[in-house]
Amino acid sequence: HNLAPLYPVHRLDRLVSGLLIFAKNGEKADCLRQQIEAGLLQKEYIAKVIGVFPEKEIVVDVNISYNAREGKSSVEKGKTACTKFTRINTNGEYSLVLCKPVTGRTHQIRVHLQYAGHPIANDMLYLSFRIDPMCTNCPNLPPKGYDEEGLWLHCVRYSGPDWSYECPYPDWA
C-alpha cells in the first residue's frame, strides 16, 4: 500500500480491539501525542458487561494502582483515574456500555467497570470465576472462544480538536 513508514500514535492493550491511529510522518505523530498529553483527545470504547447497567450516566472517579508483578490494576492508593459510562442497551443478562476514559491508566476501563459492579463479561483478569462444582447453570463461566476472540472491549472512536475517526462495532456487540 506504500504506507511505510508509519508512526504509532497510541496503543491498545493486547486483548482490546478497535481503532488504532498511525501517522504518516513523525511530525504529525508528535503533534497527535502532544494533543493526547494535553488532554485534548477524547476516546470512546464499548464494552459488553455482566448484568443490567444503570440507564443514567455513571462516573467512576477512583484512584488506580498498577501491580506490575501481578500484571493487574486495582482500586487503591494510586494515580487519579476517571471514566464515564453510559448504557447503550441490555438484554437483561448483559449490557453494552459506552466507556469514555477521562484519564489513561493501565486497565482503567476494566477496573472501573469491575468497581461499578459490572465487569466485562469475558474478562478473566477482573471477573471472578469461582464456581460451585454442583452448579448446573453457572453464569460466571468464562465464555467459549475467549482466547481467540479477545476481550469484549473495543475502541470505537478517537477525536481531537478538529478531527474524528471511528470504526464499526465488533460482532459481539
From TrEMBL:
Record's catalysed reaction(s): a uridine in RNA = a pseudouridine in RNA
Pseudouridine synthase RsuA/RluA-like domain residues: 4-114
**Which Pfam family, giving just one, matches this sequence?**
PseudoU_synth_2
Q: Which GO terms describe its biological process?
A: enzyme-directed rRNA pseudouridine synthesis
**Which Gene Ontology molecular function entries are recorded, alphabetically?**
pseudouridine synthase activity; RNA binding
PANTHER family according to UniProt:
MITOCHONDRIAL RNA PSEUDOURIDINE SYNTHASE, PSEUDOURIDYLATE SYNTHASE RPUSD2
Name of the protein in question: Pseudouridine synthase family protein
Q: What is the lineage of its organism?
A: Eukaryota, Viridiplantae, Streptophyta, Embryophyta, Tracheophyta
